Amino acid sequence: MKMLQRYYLVSILVNMVFSFDLTILHTNDVHARYEEINQYGDVCGKDTNNPCFGGIARLKTKVDHFRSNTTNTILVDAGDQFQGTLLFSALGGTACSTFMNFVEYDVMALGNHEFDRGIAGLVPFLDNVTFPVISCNIDDAMEPTIQGLIAKSTVLSVGGKQIGVIGYTTKDTTSISNPGSLTFNDEITSVRAEATRLQSQGINIIIAVGHAGYEVDKQMAAQVEGLDIIVGGHSNTFLYTGDAPSNESPVAGYPTMVPQANGDSVLVVQDYAYGKYLGALNVTFNDQGKITQYAGNPILLDSSVPKDPDAEAILNIFRPQLESFKNKIAGHTLVKMDGARLLCRQQECNMGNMIADGMVYQNLRHADSLATSRIFISLVNSGSIRSSFDQGNITFADIIQVQPFRNTLETVRLQGRHLRAALENSVSRWSPDDPSGRFLQYSGLRVTYDITKPVGQRVVDVMAMCSDCPVPEYLPLNDDTMYGIIMSNFIAKGGDGYDVISDNAQQDHIVGDLDTDVLTEYIQEMSPLYHGLEGRIKFVNGTEVEECVGAGFVTRPSSFLLLAALVLLQVMLTRVPS
User: Where is the Calcineurin-like phosphoesterase domain (predicted)?
Assistant: First the structure.
C-alpha cells in the first residue's frame, strides 16, 4: 500500500514539475476593421447610444496586458485580415502589415480574402510583415513570384518549449478569390502530413491555425492525430461558454472539444470576426504534450478596454489620406438600401436590386452595338454585397464599403438550361443560419424556389425578360434560348461554384468597368434612389419570405429600371439607319 501511495505521489510531482502553461491569443476574419466598429461590424457612428467595439487600439492594449501579466503567450491570426473597409480599399495590404507588425503577431495563416487583389496584391504584404505567414495546402509551383514567401508551418520557441504551428487555407479559394495559378490541396490531408513531419522532429505540441470554417475544423480535429488545438476562421463562428456579452449568439461552447478515435481530444476555437473580440485560450500541457487543463473565452473589446495611444497615432497618420475621399457625396437615397449579410444571402434585398439594375443600365448606356445593348439580365453574387446605405447622402466611401472587391464586368451569352443550373447553384447552400455568398440577386429575372426539395431541384419557375420583343416583357425561361447576361468577372470565371457559367458561357463583351465605378455612376444619375422589393425572388412550401422586409415597401414589375431601359432603347433605335 505504501509503495502504491509513493508511486502516485511521484506521478503527481512529475506532472507538476513538467507542466507547461500556454496562452493562445487569437483573431480571425478581422477584415481590416482597424478603426472601432459598431455591434454589427460596421463603421461606428457618433451616436453615444450605440457603443463602439474593437479596433486596433483596443486590441493592442489587451494583447500587451496579457504579455505583461501572463507567461508563455502567443498571438496568432487565422486569416482574412484583408478586405472590407475603406482603409483597405485605399491602402491595400499596407494597412494590414503596418498594424499587424505593430501588435506583433507571432504567426498568421492565409485566408481566401488575402488573394482578392491577386498575387500582385499579396506579395507586398508578405514582404513587409515581420512574422511568418503559413499555409500547408498551397502549391505555388506555378507562381514563382510568391515562392518562398509562404511556409507550410513554423516552430515557435516559447518558454523553452517548441510549439509547432501549421497553417491551412480553404480549398475553395480558387473559386471565391483570385489566387492566380496557385493550387489549394485538401486541408485535412495536408495538415495530417505536416503534423506527421513535425512529430518526426520531436515536436509534441502542435497547433493548426487555418481558414476553412468551423465544420472543416471539427472534421480535422477528429481525423488528424497529433493535433492539440485548432484555431479557425472563415465561418465567423462565435464560440462562447456562459452568457454572451454582446449581441452574438454562441454556436457552441468555447473551446469545442472534439474526441478522436485514439482517445485523445482536440480543442477547436474561433472568435467571431471583425476584431470585436480577442480569443484567449489558456492551456496546460504535460511533458508528453498532452493537454491536462484548459480554460478561456473570447474577450469583448468594448469601452472598458482603453485605446493604446501609439495605435491611435498610427491611425491618425492614415486618416487624413482618406477624409477628402470619404466625405465626397455621390448621391442620395430616400430609403434605406439594405445590404445586410443575412438578408441578401437569403432573399431579395433592395441593395441587390439596385446593384443589378445599375449593371444593366450601365451596359445600355455604354453598349458598342445594338445587339450588345439588348441585355436586360444581370447576376450579382450576394457575397459581393458588404454593407448598406442609410437614408440620406451616399458618399464614395459608402459605395466602396458596399462593393470592396474591385471586380470588373463582363457580358456573356448563356443557354437557358445553363442559366437555370446557375440559379440552382444560387440556392444549393441556402441556409437560415449561415447562408452562402453564392446566393444571387438579379435584374431581368423572376425566380421561384422550393428549398424543401433536394439540391439541384429547387428552381420551381423562372421568368426572364425577353430581349427580342419589341417591348421587353417577362416570359418563361426557354432551355434552348441563348440569353445575354452581364455579371462580374468573378462569376464569369466560375467563382462561388458557378462552373456552369465558366464552362458553358460564350463571352460576348468585356465591359471592363469596375463594379464600384458602375454603381457610383448609377447612383449619381438616378439619385434620389427609392428602390424597393419587386418579387424578383420568391419561395414556396414553407419558405415563404415576406416581401416587405428590407426597403419597407414593394415596387412592382413596372420598375424604374424598365422605364429607363425602354427610354434608352428607344433613343438607340432612332439612331439606327433604316
Answer: 23-235
